[in-house]
Amino acid sequence: MKKLALVVAAPLVVVGAATFYTSTQVEQTTRDAVGQANLKLREMSAGVSGGVSLKLLSFERGLLSSFARYQIDVEVHDEGDTRRYSLLLQDRIEHGPFPLSRLARGQLMPVAAQSHVQLERTPLTQKLFDAASGEVPLVGDIATGYDGSQSGVLRSAALHVENDTGSVHISPGTVSFDASKDASAIRMDGELAEIDAKLIGTNKPVRFSLRGIGMSVDKHKDANGFALGPTAVTLERVDIQAGDTAVAIHNASVDEALSRGSRGLDQTVAYRIGRLEAQGQSFSDFALAFSLRNLEEASLKALAESYKELLESGSDQQDAIASMTDDQQSKLQAHALQVLQHKPTLALDEFGFKSAHGASRLSVVLDLQGQSEEGFNPLEILASLKAEAGIDKSLVRDVAGLIAQHRERHNQPDPVALQQQADAATDLFSGMALNSGWYHLEGERLVSSLRYADDHVTFNGREMSVQEFMGFAFNSVQSAGLLGQ
How many domains does the chain have? Predict the structure, then answer.
């Protein structure tokens, strides 16, 4: 019997000792976390008008759990006026290694602490509590590991606001995350099912709804402090109705990624829309994608640090740039030239969309190069250029038809008259594009291409010098009346 009691008691003693030890360390751990958070917030707000900081107001230590209160201070500068806001958070911290709330959920991995955070009701947040129908608008459960890592989930309550100008309804949302110590690696996923809004304070009531909002982040810092990995924001559907005009957007997304390529860092940013519906017509595959490739890390880091020092030299970003000294400008220029020495590439990889009958596309790739600081000429950094553009006349006709239909939305539209307007607009656009010399016709598609390298230009298959091309471009713009008299 004594042996059995010893077998049962020994683990309890070990757990109890571990819990007591954790209780003695949790306050310092919390203060360290607040300090680290402020460092990150200062980095993120460098050069921005205003800032955000976190303060530990109080800490009451107990044996199994402790209680903390935090204050988030937000400072906003706007045209010489400074506004300050403060949010309060309550935190019940369960001590490790086995917090009861985790055991109740079947989570048996030991942790240093389990925090239960919630927004505190204040005069500033009272409207949020009212919109949440008495629920706490924001709560979070965050586990802190013994290695300093954190994981958890933040939840927002359903919010509903209604007044004389309209109404807004937001469904509950969640953000789950995993972060290593010092946030050198972070994964984050967020979901918000829907937002509905109605604005009635204008002549034409406006309604819009958003469905299926998602967010994902998977970043890790390399040795130079660059956050590698992808970030994405997705939206399943948007509906907008203003009077008798309705627009629907399906499968919209914004994607960003920073990766290490064969010649340095590559960054891409892409905006996409799967389908857009308006006035009975449908357009698809909208894309606007940029990339910056072949960035040498050491010189890019030096440029970023120099720019950060510049932003921190003024009260805000505008002030810092406006009061830039000659030494600061020379330093920035020198670092920029070091980046260019490694011949990066700047590209508009894709810009275009499709209709039911045609498509358009534009791409531009610029290869850059370095030069000496003496006699710096921005035009000389261009080593080569490749541009291609194409648009189907049938796409022009579809867009022209949509515009004509919108103009006649208050009248009974005549299909024959609308078709005639669309045909006339298509012929006018095509004629201007061809007469300008910038495009030529291949079947029913207007196309254009431009190549530049080694001080030589190939434009729509025609070989010419840079001077000849510049003369053509100037005369074309002048003929179009864009230079006035």
Answer: 1
